[in-house]
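Allow me, if you will, to draw on your knowledge of protein folds for a short while. The matter concerns a single protein, recorded as an amino acid sequence and a row of C-alpha cells. Kindly check, if you would, that the fold set down in the C-alpha cells agrees with what the sequence suggests. You will find the record immediately after this paragraph.
***
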Amino acid sequence: MTKDMTEGAIPHLLVGFTIPLVLGNLFQLLYNAVDSMIVGKFVGETALAAVGTSSPLMTLAILFISGMCMGAGVLMGMHYGAKDY
C-alpha cells in the first residue's frame, strides 16, 4: 500500500510522518540512558567514562547517516512529485 503525500491536508501528513522519527529518537535516548546506568552500576567508573566518551561519536555517526537519508529523501521526493519514475 502506497500513500501519495502530495495530496491532502499538509499538517495531518506531517504529523503522521514525524511521529516515527520522534519515537526513534526517544528510543535512542532511552537506550543510551539505560546503557549508562547498567555500565555504571555493574562494570565501574572507567567503563562508564568510556561509554560517556564514545556517546558523542555515535551521535555524530547517527546524525551523519540521518542527514544522508534526508538528502536522498529530498531527491526521491522531487522525482516522485514530478512523476518522473
